[in-house]
Amino acid sequence: MKNKIAIASAALLAGCTTVSLNQPTTSSSNGGQRNAPAGAAVSHNTGSMSLERYKRLLAQHIAEVNPDKIYPGNPQALLRSVVVLKYEVDGNGRLLHSNTLRSNGDTDAVDIALSALRRAAPFPPPPDRLLTRGRMEILETMLFNDDGRFQLRSIAAPQLTE
User: How does the average pLDDT of the chain come out, rounded?
Assistant: First the structure.
């Protein structure tokens, strides 16, 4: 049974594409590469991305900007908190506003979630075809463990069952 699960997991992962934002680069005048400044918008060819793929790109970006807030591995079986955020970005990836759609009243988790989102701005620009009047609304769920760290539902590992 374990082998079947391992094979299925490997097959699933083989079909996934991960976009790493750890070392964004931009062209320099001498033809070499240099790291983009911290907090700068990372340019990606997002033009043909689906909504789900773009949401995963944003979640990966948020996770990479906030590594000390991310829980590695699988989220625990009984989560401390689930926070659902709604945020809006413009065509350049600038965060226009954000608010909490759902929470269990854990104000610390809500503060951590909103702070992580603000720290990650600006975001990779959304595909033009996903914009409405130059803006895009995104929902993201953050799954909090007891220690106050979280995973973003768009890219989270499966939750533990026990």
Answer: 79
Domains and CATH numbers, the chain: 51-162 (3.30.1150)
Q: Which residues neighbour 157 within 8 Å (Cβ) at sequence distance 6 or greater?
A: 73, 74, 75, 151
Least confident span in 32-36, 78-82, 100-104, 144-148 = 32-36
- C-alpha–C-alpha distance, residues 15 and 125, integer Å: 24
| Cα pseudo-dihedral 151, 95, 112, 152, rounded to 10 | -10
Which amino acid, 73? G
* Beta-bridge partner residues of 141: 84
Report yes or no: 107 and 81 within 8 Å, Cβ to Cβ.
Answer: no
HSE-CB of 101 using CA atoms within 13 angstroms: 12
Structure token digits, residue 54: 């773009």
Residue 115 has pLDDT above 90, yes or no: yes
How many Å apart are CA 130 and CA 93, to the nearest integer? 12
Question: Are 58 and 88 in contact, with CB atoms under 8 Å apart?
Answer: no
